[in-house]
Amino acid sequence: MAASKVKQDMPPLGGYGPIDYKRNLPRRGLSGYSMFAVGIGTLLFGYWSMMKWNRERRRLQIEDFEARIALMPLLQAEKDRRVLQVLRENLEEEAIIMKDVPDWKVGESVFHTTRWVTPTMGELYGLRMNEEILRATYGFMWYT
Which residue has the higher pLDDT, 27 or 41? Predict the structure, then answer.
């Protein structure tokens, strides 16, 4: 067998240059400690703003309560006036309905007391139409 004349590929004299195998990533963003500090700072700012808003909300709530307390006597007087007006109308209606019944005393109390007893919804609106009873019970509603 004859010797082959193939020349084998060999490295150059002195060898190949060094291969750069290390990671060469550019540094991006903040370090872990600085991100932790930013997170803590954000939390502290959030707590501070929440505390500030809660104080303001509490101040506004106290103002609303004081306004409600100041208006309470007026609202109670309006309610009492409305109740007395309905009771007077009921007595007039009772007088018309029971005029033919002998020994009927209009407005005689069914309670055996001289103290004021707040009338129930049935006593106030017993002689009224259903719409008026519902309006007095549930108040004004937009969707009705």
Answer: 41
